[in-house]
Amino acid sequence: MPRATTSSGKGTVQAVLASLERRGTKRGRDGMARYGIVAPKAFGVSVIVLKQLAKPLGRDHGLALELWDTGWYEARMLAGFVDDPACVTPAQMERWARDFDNWAVCDHICFHLFDRTPHAWAKIRLWSSRRDEFVKRAAFALLASVALHDKSGSDDPFVAALALIERAAPDERNFVKKGVSWALRGVGRRSLALNVASLELARRLAESQDAAARWVGKDAIRDLSRPMIARRVGRQP
Fold first, then answer.
1. Are the C-beta atoms of residues 165 and 217 closer than 8 Å to each other?
2. Closest CA to 3 of 59, 55, 53
3. C-alpha to C-alpha distance for 156 and 148, rounded to whole angstroms
4. How far apart are CA 63 and CA 12, in angstroms?
5. Is pLDDT at 30 greater than 50 in this prediction?
6. d(C-alpha 36, C-alpha 46), whole Å
7. Alpha helices of the chain — where are they, by DSSP H?
8. Domain 102-237 has what CATH class?
9. Is residue 58 left, alpha or beta, with left meaning phi > 0 and alpha meaning psi from -120 to 50?
10. Cα 71 vs. chain centroid, distance in angstroms?
11. Which of 46, 47, 134, 209 is the most buried (most CB within 10 A)?
12. Over 70: is that where the pLDDT of 111 sits?
């Protein structure tokens, strides 16, 4: 494993927090609330600004850990940008997942960091059966992220993951339900074979007696049946 880079200590973290505080606005916090992002500690800084702040920080595993531990929403989002996937351990993934308290941090960390680690598939399988709402969502946000970013992987693990999706589809909690749909749609966009298998599952779910499963199935059918997706996977010339 590559050696983790380390930050210059608490002074760096405090400087980052001070910068975030200066850029935070009530308008930004109100915007978070409109999108259902509930965070106990937030400055109100946009993701665009966070990307700008992350760029000069580079990859810094030590700094990422310290930023996460502050508990600030924006600091945790920055941690996802600056952490080094090669230095992320399964234990760190567990700790951070237990801290997920809104969909934005959950999805951001899965999409920008966790899916690039060698532990992603193990966590997808493990977290898919967890009770905690945002840990369970993380399983499917991570699956959707791997489906998008892993361009060279075989279909086999994604075929197996359809069983995880089917098992979780009856979970009526909003953030889990939407995460399951995202994963099913992501898998179905990868290849012709996965599109066919995903649509088969989606149609089965759409006929379910369970309202949540029915919603997931119909949502996936709408997306995966679009001509643009059909052309992408080779289902249409």
1. no
2. 59
3. 15
4. 8
5. yes
6. 15
7. 10-23, 26-34, 47-57, 61-69, 73-82, 90-99, 103-112, 120-127, 133-149, 156-168, 174-188, 192-206, 211-224, 227-233
8. mainly alpha
9. left
10. 18
11. 134
12. yes
Supply the pLDDT for residue 11: 65
Among residues 176, 33, 4, 183, which one has the least CA distance to residue 111? 183
pLDDT band at 237 (very low <50, low <70, confident <90, very high): low
Q: What's the burial of 118, exposed, middle or buried (CB within 10 Å: 0-12/13-18/19+)?
A: exposed
H or E element, residue 200 = helix 192-206
Whether 122 has a pLDDT exceeding 50, the answer reads yes
Helix (H, G, I), strand (E, B) or coil at 45: coil
Q: What is the pLDDT of residue 135?
A: 98
Going from the C-alpha of 182 to that of each of 38, 145, 169, 225, the distances in angstroms are 21, 9, 11, 15
**Helix, strand or coil, per DSSP, at residue 27:** helix
What is the model's pLDDT at position 234? 87
Q: Does the pLDDT at position 9 exceed 70?
A: no
**Nearest one of 158, 143, 153 to 197, comparing CA atoms:** 158
Torsional class of 41: left (φ above 0), alpha (ψ -120 to 50), beta (otherwise): beta
Nearest CA-CA partner of 93 in 82, 106, 75: 106
Beta carbons of 78 and 69 less than 8 angstroms apart: no
pLDDT tens-place string over residues 196-227: 999 999 999 999 999 999 999 999 999 999 99
Residue 82 belongs to what H/E stretch?
A: helix 73-82
**Residue spans per domain, the chain:** 1-87, 102-237
For residue 4, the model assigns a pLDDT of 42
Question: Is pTM, for the whole model, over 0.90?
Answer: yes
Task: Please determine, for residue 235, whether its predicted confidence score (pLDDT) is greater than 90.
Answer: no
